[in-house]
Write a structure and sequence with these properties.
- The complex is a heterodimer of chains A (about 70) and B (about 150).
- The longest helix of chain A has 23 residues.
- Chain A is an all-alpha fold.
- In chain B, strand 3 and strand 4 form a beta hairpin.
- In chain B, strands 1-2-3-4 form a four-stranded antiparallel sheet, with no helix packed on it.
- Chain B has about 150 residues and is α+β, with helices and mostly antiparallel strands.
- Chain B has four helices and four strands.
- The chains are: A mainly alpha (about 70), B alpha+beta (about 150).
- At the A-B interface, helix 1 and helix 2 of A face helix 1 and helix 3 of B.
Chain lengths: ~70, ~150
């Protein structure tokens, strides 16, 4: 868990400011590169937050294998 | 993290993260949470036999179960959100999707373990509590359908 912990710890103090910036960025395909990078970082911290805050391991403890999921496009 | 996400958009459990005993109830869409429960988060409607619709503050999710046999099922789930107008709202929706996925991961394991136990035949009876009304009603409806079918054949 060291990598998710480090990433989460680095992002969380900055996340409020990141989201304030992103709130002013329209959600379009023509988003500027810096904002798109910040959005990807924010989505990544959303991905690791439950593991860091709740499970203390990369996935749900003894959970269903997510590799069995089949996802459709948004 | 949940509070940050909810500050910028709808999440499946967002209403339960707000402060104030009456705030959560006030966030329910019209016709949802008719008792005005102050710790409301979402409301799950079950359409017999196998379609679930859960309405939240600003989003909804569904489950559709299609049996393939007595011990196998296709489980289709969707989470639905408004088209995000800004990038922070898109982050909130991503957090909500992750939350939804992890709940399904927990439930999926539990359901498969229950099925495995039932299939073993180790237990001959499955006791349902009063609160498990949907399961009892579903069982009753299923029995009515089977009897009606047997009556025709």
């Amino acid at each position: 868990m060291s990598a998710p912990d480090r990433f989460y710890a680095a992002m969380l103090p900055r996340l409020g400011a990141v989201l304030e910036h992103l709130a002013g960025v329209p959600m379009t395909d023509s988003m500027d590169r810096q904002s798109a990078a910040l959005l990807n970082l924010a989505k990544s911290v959303a991905e690791v937050a439950p593991a860091v805050e709740q499970f203390r391991e990369p996935a749900v403890s003894n959970g269903y294998d997510v590799k069995r999921f089949r996802t459709d496009p948004e | 993290m949940a509070a940050l996400a909810y500050a910028h958009g709808s999440t499946i459990a967002g209403a339960s993260t707000v402060d104030g005993t009456q705030v959560s109830a006030a966030l329910a869409p019209r016709g949802v949470n008719p008792t005005g429960s102050p710790d409301w988060s979402f409301e799950l409607q079950v359409f017999f036999p196998s379609f679930f619709l859960a309405v939240t503050d600003g989003s909804y999710f569904t489950h559709q179960f299609l049996p393939l046999g007595v011990d196998r099922t296709h489980w289709f789930s969707t989470t639905c959100y408004p088209k995000p107008t800004n990038a922070a709202q898109r982050f909130s929706q991503e957090y909500s999707r992750v939350m939804f996925r992890d709940i399904m991961v927990e439930d999926g394991r539990q359901i498969e373990e229950t099925q495995s136990m039932l299939k073993s035949g180790a237990r001959k009876e499955f006791i349902l509590k009063d609160e498990e009304l949907f399961i009892r009603q579903g069982l009753w409806e299923g029995e009515q359908m089977i009897r009606a079918h047997q009556g025709r054949s």
